[in-house]
Amino acid sequence: MDKGPFVCTGCALLCDDITVDLQDNRVIGVNTACLKGVSRMKGCSSPMTCTVDGKTVDVDTAIKEAARILEEAKHPLIFGHGNSTLEAQKKSIELARELGAHIDDTSSFCQGPLVEAILNEKIPTCTLDEVRHMADVIVFWGADPSHSHPRHLSMYSYFPRGKQRQRGWEEDRTAVIIDVRRSDTAAVCGDKLYEIPVGADPEFMDALLNALASKVPKTSFNMDPKRILELANILKKAEFGVVFAGLGMTYSLDSLEPLFRLMDKLNETAKFHLIPMVGQYNMRGFDHTLFRETGHINRVYFGGEEVEHGPQRSVVELIRNNIIDAAMIIGSDPLASLPGPLAKKLSKIPLITIDPCENLTSRISKVTIPSALSGVECGGTAIRMDGVEVVLKQIIETNRLTDEKIIARIMEEI
Amino acid sequence: MGFGQFLTEPEFKLIIVTHRDVFQNTAQENSRFGEQYAERSSVIRLDKDDMKKMGVKAGDLVVAKNASGRVVLKAESSTLEQSHPGTAFMINGPWANALVAADTGGTGVPAFKNIEVMLSRSKGEKVTSLAELI
């Protein structure tokens, strides 16, 4: 048996230094991982069972019923993908093509715009390993990694003594945080917290632009211009700067233009990169895969003469406008993560859930098919939040099928 | 049954900002249906002065509602040092999401972190359960 180290699939940091204690083909201990990672890798307490209409069935019956639902639907949606391997994601796109279906993932209402901008080379980016070894100015913007990616600061962004940052956080690194609240990450950044009102991110970007151009930065929320000028000074001098963009920033930007302007300006005098704080372990992987195949990262419809894409093809608008008449959800829980009124609408159409664990969506699904937990019960590949491909290894045996195999079997039935 | 029961509780306009929480996430990894997940997801953290104004004490139950939904939550005092009147914080989850509007102005991205609600004291209700949400 492989002794590891293994990769944790608890979030898109994909920590690759994990060792485990096993007993009777069960993970009973997880070392090195964060709280969330330990909980993920030990497996949930409510594993999903294989059902059709709430009755326990064998997996063949469930797969046949899933195929029937998808085949009969005029506008099926395949959604989720953030907790599946690249191999499963490829298979899912193949199925969507064959069905002429809608396909989307959680990036549609998450970090999609930033991943898209990076893939289209509109924002300079770098890897987390480069951050560990080189970054001297680290900006957390609308992000709280202490909670969302608990080992972010210790593995990569702040505490490590990197090759060129041997004096670590004490002398070599400056961490800045821009946020609407004093989060636990803000506590680490000390007096470098720039507290802004909700939604004021684009305004603060423009103020910073002014400060970088040595103009007096004014804000409608009266932040002391001196403080903004101080920040501009820190950013200007960065040898290797990085902005970790959280959802707090992404949700506040109606357009990415203010961010593009800021990144361009920063790169006139310093070297600045951006990494989006992606949540689910392989959300970015789905975006890369679909982008390679269609030129779009998400929100795609294969039912037209040509591949269609746009906000009207997003999971949210498809549900809101009553377009879809069946949905297959893979490794996601839209009933928990969508706005309440949309969750209610989604629950009215036939749903198929593929997941290792029971969730809100599976409870109201017509078909549930339990799958192997990736990184524990099956291997594969995934793309980390910084775009680096990571290989996942299988740790324990299971009789549950992988997402990839389940989708392949559904395709065979269609 | 006192007279007060028939009086409407005053309502206060607030913006809810959601955020992540490692303990809630850990609980969620174990089970979406566990007590700890529900407990952490159904707390609203308010500014201390706002609480005084509303006559709400830590641990009191409050009703948050808008055109999208209505949930009963447990009010707690904010742990933040600075005051933030008019803004409340909640951990991202089905309780907060119940209040998020479906209308996105065509962008496909709901306002998960900027939710306008009316908040009032609850009258003898229980915290909304997960079952009630689905």
Uncertain spans of chain A, ≥5 residues at pLDDT below 50?
none
The profile of the biggest β sheet of chain A is:
9 strands, mixed
CATH class of the largest domain in chain A equals Alpha Beta
What is the average per-residue confidence, as pLDDT of chain A, rounded to a whole number?
97
H/I helix tally of chain A: 19
**Over all CA atoms, what is the radius of gyration of chain A?**
22 Å
- Which stretches of chain B are low in confidence, meaning pLDDT under 50 for 5 or more residues running? none
> Looking at CATH, which topology of chain B would you report?
Barwin-like endoglucanases
Please outline what is shown here.
The complex is a heterodimer of chains A (414) and B (134). Chain A is an alpha/beta fold.
What does this molecule look like?
The complex is a heterodimer of chains A (414) and B (134). Chain A is α/β, with parallel strands linked by helices and 414 residues long. Chain A has 19 helices and 18 strands. In chain A, 38% of the residues lie in helices and 18% in strands. In chain A, helix 9 (184-189) links the parallel strand 8 and strand 9 (193-195). In chain A, helix 10 (201-212) packs parallel to helix 13. The longest helix of chain A is centred in the N-terminal third of the chain and has 14 residues, at 59-72. Chain B has helices spanning 22-30, 35-41, 48-54, 94-97, 130-133, and strands at 12-19, 43-46, 61-65, 70-77, 87-91, 115-121. In chain B, helix 1 (22-30) runs antiparallel to helix 2. The longest helix of chain B is centred in the N-terminal third of the chain and has 9 residues, at 22-30. The model of chain B has no long low-confidence stretch (mean pLDDT 93). Chains A and B meet through helix 1, helix 6, helix 15, helix 16 and helix 17 of A and strand 1 and helix 1 of B.
